[in-house]
Amino acid sequence: MIKRPPQKTAPNISTLNDLATLANYSLMDSLNCDPDATVNGHDHAPRQVFTGHYVPVTPTPIENPEYVAHSKNLFRELGFADSMAQSADFVRVFSGDIAFVPEPMRKVGWACGYALSIYGTEYIQQCPFQTGNGYGDGRAISVLEAVINGQRWEMQLKGGGRTPYCRGADGRAVLRSSVREFLAQEHMHALGVPTSRSLSLYVSKTEKVRRPWYSEGSHSRDPDTLVSDAVAISTRVAPSFIRVGQLELFGRRARKKEHPQAMEELEQIVLHLIDREYGDVIDQNLATSEKVVLLAREFRGRLTSLVANWIRVGYCQGNFNSDNCAAGGFTLDYGPFGFCDAFDPQYQPWTGGGHHFSFLNQPEAAERNFHTFCSALRPLLTAHQDRLIELDEIQGDFPKAMQTQMKKMWAAKLGLAAFHQALFSELTTLMMQTSVDYTVFFRQLSTVPDDIGVLKKSFYKGSTLKTDLEGMDKRWEEWLTKWKTLAGIISTTDATATPPRAHEELSQEMKLVNPKYSLREWFVVPAYQQAAAGNYSLVRELQDVMTQPYAEQSQDVEKKYYRLKPLELFEVGGSSHYSCSS
Ligand SMILES: Nc1ncnc2c1ncn2[C@@H]1O[C@H](COP(=O)(O)OP(=O)(O)OP(=O)(O)O)[C@@H](O)[C@H]1O
Ligand SMILES: [Mg+2]
Predict the structure, then answer these.
(1) Which atom of ligand 1 is least distant from the CA of 136?
(2) In this predicted complex, what is the ipTM?
(3) Cβ of residue 51 lying under 6 Å from some atom of ligand 1
(4) What's the pTM?
């Protein structure tokens, strides 16, 4: 889990100077700099990076930045004054200009290389040099590490311009994708799902880039037009941004003995990861081989729990490659993600994502990433046969660990003490046959209804299904009765059975697991469209609503955001599906 600093009553960081005094650059100070890089970070042209863990690089500021939003929650947790988000020097830094920052902040940021495996298969084709040495943070640039209230945080700009890993692209992010990522990170945090966090979002009033996108109302699968979008910089925050793909890059180099320091660089990055993300659970005095095994066990626990949480809240990552899998076990890279509307095990909003990264296949995708992770660690254990066997066991037991988490999650979603396979299978069959809204269904069920009328609020086909309507109703009724019996709401004839639970108690419990509000794409589309016209009120409204996803909220909010997706919005390009997210 991402550690949360204790809540502060009053902000103690109200200026950039205050923040600068907390700067503490562990990555730049303890890992290796690319020896071919210019130290001032002014080298932005795509090139191969053969060794070293990072490249110093300066961000390219966006022109004429304008404040869009900041996360009040994260500001509060960090002890930042809200006023700072709109103060001139803070805006300058987090819209990409760090040339003026006060010491000990540095006038240079950094980007990291990583490797890519898709569903467990190693790729180098995405690298322009066909070697893998040109692949990494192409538009993500970290500008600060700071220790705040005893917790280390890294602050990373997304869309901060080109880096040596940009592969010929512009290094920019458009407002649309930045609004999506900004809102989603704070929503996920409020849902209780580990994630990188959102700090701030600024848009350029004048700088635009062209991106392929969908024309209004298009049903095309691929973008059918080119649009000119304003560029933006969002800043995300996490204990580190180390990805499985990053370990993989050094693991591959060590395995292939690509250069004399390859093994040492692998060990350094792994120990650095442990320090940054696992310091509280792995004793720093242990030998590397012991640490590595503990790391694999701990990451397996975090990853399986993370993916079960994704499914609990209806989230599909969409592109769960090794380079989009944070080694700290939290959600990273809100590109082609989506929250499902109608339940579909194969839900996948990204047209390039395929079945393998679809909603209920995420446990398999996670397993592939975990294999990639273990393969990256293996070179460090070649002299420790017993540890290698332990690592193999940890890897081999992934499906069991994943299944345990999934069963625990489904049981909790259904308010049951234990998972019940038959009840669950019948439910998913019914949900698909009836076409049921995932979020609304589980929240309606959480009211512990007397009859299926209440559940019908979540049925897309409820009122239109002519064929066998009665048959379906009967099956739903039988299912509900069985569920209530298992949930302990209806007493059985068995005199030794536990007494029936109070409806209210069960309902309260379930409402803590089943959110009322989820960030569906059709809520976000008008928000970024209005933002493009300079009106940020809907972005801020969504920020408010989606950071309290379990609360009932007002009737107005309920009417607007607790409802089925309008049928005319299904199959619409850019909303129901998208082919690119940058
Ligand atoms: N406009 C761009 N300019 C430069 N590089 C880019 C751009 N868009 C994507 N990339 C790079 O392409 C690769 C794959 O893109 P992907 O969409 O997974 O990442 P991303 O959304 O940019 O970033 P992240 O994973 O950091 O959230 C990444 O290495 C990313 O940095
Ligand atoms: Mg990515």
Answers:
(1) 29
(2) 0.99
(3) no
(4) 0.96
